[in-house]
Amino acid sequence: MKLKSDFLWGGALAANQCEGAWQEDGRLPASADFLPDAAHGRWNAMLHPGNILETRYDYYPSREAIDFYHRYKEDIRLLAESGIKALRLSISWTRIYPTGEENAPNEDGLRFYEELFTECRRYGIEPVVTLCHFDVPEALIRKYGAWADRRLIALYEKYAATVFDRYRNLVKYWMTFNEINMITHIPYLGGGLLVDKDDPEFNQIVYNAAHNQLVASACAVRIGKKINPNFRIGCMMAAGSFYPYSCNPNDVMEARISNNKNYIFPDVQLNGCYSGFARNYFAKLGITLDEQPGDDELLAQNTCDFLGFSYYSSRLISTDPEHLKNVADGNAITTLRNPYLQITKWGRQIDPVGLRVTMNDLYDRYHKPLFIVENGLGVEDTLEVDGSVHDPYRVEYLDAHITQMKKAVLEDGIPCMGYLVWGIIDLVSAGGGEMDKRYGLVYVNKHNDGTGDLARYKKDSFGWYAQKIREECYE
């Protein structure tokens, strides 16, 4: 059986990981522009940012990235050969409002995205646009401490209103924040917060900043629906259900608690209020949110239309001290090593069935359409002398996940709007700042040290995905 004809098969990219051109056409620096590569301690810089805006590193991978800013026309033309129906992109806030506080937007930035979205539509590709994808203007970090300050809400709403109005006839699908729950794990990347993981006020600062983002998200929904009632505006989370390590009831309960923590923010964005679990959790941690009059009504009346989510792996948790010793590097979210799963060099445990489990968990909780806006395999690829890249491991990974996604839709009855391969073109990894951790179906000739001519080469997985889309859509 096939999915519905309007299912959005496609891929995903993010401005700070692909565009480059970090100081061109009026753009000013943003949070990701100050993150070094893995060799210079990127993870440590995110977890212990200190005075990161003043620290000098040898190499900042986001500043050139894969130069999508200058190459987007050839890249869109290339991707169109695969037959994709949708391309997730994000807007760089500082291309539109360079400091975040200008009275008038930057016309060069507005024009760039207008041309980018128009180019997508020229090839029949639906843009799926994230307003804020790990992106905070440097000036707002310096002046306000980024999302720690409620004043960012009004600035974000102004930015959202500007792009909603400009692209009201070019973009239908929007998401307000990328992986909003990641602010509690990597707060500099998720919210531009200069807070140390070891700071005794860490939880207070991070959850209050997250509340500001949630209010801003609701403001964006409100203004977006006024500008174009046909907009579909979603939220987006880093998903992957926690499994209990065993049938010990303590393990089962610990998994439930871990999942509840992960759902705190989409609970607000989709249900319109904090859960009872969240309120009790905040009280337990001594967190007092800076909630202002009108916040509750705003959140309740401006919920999102769908839940976009990334899925790379399931998670595993236990209360047994012996089991807790066997931790896998879960890319920001700690997980135990699952003995039934293969694991990548970067600590991702491969669990296609976990995608189906996660989809069931999310739909059972929210009863709103799901949208898989990130799924992919980050591994090292080899460019052969003839320009070919043989990646059967990626084909196997994607095929297995698509199979489970289809089972969730066709057998479990879960509405799903689309499936987007993350990093459909190789790009800078968000966590490690690496190029050699490649997700793409298109190889970009650039390496961890910044060398390479940026030439693009189709991998074997590109042809496979094109055939998969043809089979699903036409045959």
What does this entry look like structurally?
By secondary structure, this protein is of the alpha/beta class. It has one domain: TIM Barrel (Alpha-Beta Barrel), CATH 3.20.20. 39% of the residues lie in helices and 15% in strands. The chain contains 16 helices and 16 strands. It has an 8-stranded parallel β-barrel, surrounded by 5 helices. A two-stranded parallel ribbon has the order 6-8. A hairpin with a 5-residue loop joins strand 11 and strand 12. The longest helix is centred in the middle third of the chain and has 26 residues. It is globular. The chain starts with 7 loop residues before the first strand and ends with a helix. The relative contact order is 0.14. GO terms for molecular function: beta-glucosidase activity. It comes from Faecalibacterium prausnitzii. This is 6-phospho-beta-glucosidase. It holds the Pfam family Glyco_hydro_1. Belongs to the glycosyl hydrolase 1 family.
